[in-house]
Specification:
By secondary structure, this protein is an alpha/beta fold. The protein has eleven helices and seven strands. The protein binds magnesium ion (MG).
């Protein structure tokens, strides 16, 4: 991993900021909350397979949500009562917009709850997430979003998103928390992490800044970016 650790300042238009959703923008993992509440199977056994690398994120979410028989509207209604947005998110979105930083959400969660829980922002960040379609007999059917790179390389969904953004931005900054962020953490130029990703980074010799709120991240961004307002 290459990190700019010197005093050289970055220009905002060279940087894209990619942010995980579950457990990063939200304080809870929304997918886990929904599975705890509504799954009709031992979803933790399936999650353990994902953590061991035996299935990818799309396979994991497909298997887990095929055992959830409630539709998106019901799931969102429940999620809104239990999910907390990490403090500083809205200010962080406004800061990125005012500074000219490209901001996008990269989520291994499901599109309906990412869009349903993400606070309204102006401008809204781009969202890359898994897509869920519900049927009453088969539960959730989860698919990957259309990839626009088309080369079909067998890599993780989030690494693929990172690679697509690299075509336009020389520096990718990633903010995440979980197992599905490990691949992106390896290839990002700079990383902010909360647990359990933070401990995984320490164990794997990957540099990461810890944070509690998006105010913490915003303060570090200010120190990293060259001022363009004189
Ligand atoms: Mg997460």
């Amino acid at each position: 991993m290459t990190q700019n650790t010197g005093s050289e300042k970055m220009h905002a238009d060279d940087v894209v900021v990619l942010v995980d959703f579950d457990g990063t923008i939200t304080e809870e993992d929304v997918g886990v909350l929904l599975l705890k509440q509504y799954s009709t199977t031992d979803w933790e056994r399936l999650e353990a397979r994902f953590a061991r690398g035996e299935v990818d994120i799309q396979q994991n979410m497909q298997q887990q949500f095929s055992y959830v028989q409630h539709d998106a509207a019901a799931l969102i209604e429940y999620a809104r009562t239990v999910v907390t947005i990490r403090p500083g998110w809205q200010e962080f979105v406004r800061y990125c917009s005012a500074t000219g930083l490209k901001l996008a959400v990269v989520s291994g969660g499901l599109d309906f709850y990412v869009h349903g829980l993400l606070p309204l922002s102006n401008p809204p960040p781009d969202v890359h997430s898994l897509l869920a379609v519900y049927s009453t007999d088969a539960g959730g059917q989860v698919t990957l979003p259309d990839a626009d790179d088309g080369d079909g390389e067998p890599e993780g969904f989030k690494e693929a998103v990172v690679r697509r953004y690299r075509r336009r931005y020389s520096h990718v900054w990633f903010i995440g928390n979980g197992v599905s962020d490990r691949g992106a953490a390896r290839v990002a130029d700079r990383l902010w992490a909360v647990e359990p990703l933070l401990s995984w980074c320490c164990a794997n010799d990957i540099n990461a800044s810890s944070f509690k709120t998006f105010d913490d991240v915003r303060e570090e961004f200010k120190a990293l970016l060259a001022r363009t307002d004189g």
